[in-house]
From TrEMBL:
It comes from the Bacteria. Coiled coil: none annotated. Pfam families: ALP_N. This is Actin-like protein N-terminal domain-containing protein. Residues 4-102 form the Actin-like protein N-terminal domain. The lineage of its organism: Bacteria, Bacillati, Bacillota, Clostridia, Eubacteriales. Transmembrane segments: none annotated.
Amino acid sequence: MNVAVDVGHGFTKACSERQRLFFPSLIAQAPAGVDLGEYAANETTQIDRVAYLVGDAARRHATPLWSRDKATDADTLRLVLVAAARLGATGPVTVATGLKPTRLERDHPDYRA
């Protein structure tokens, strides 16, 4: 499977041969909390056995990526992993980063989502 991911300052954009998606470039470890049931539950994403809030769910807990050096930031890699997983990536995966998915699609007609 081929995946293209652009972790932008505002949004993470990604596409595969089958679909495309975007979500806010926000990620934070899920805070420990009191179990209030489904009403107050935030969707978490597990990465290396650690629960994270990603995208909209992380709005109240995350520091925007524009305040960091994205090229060396571990959260940028986590957002790439989340994007690939949300696209359904399993098994051997080729990930292109640093290219906007629309440019990749324009330059490679056989890579349309």
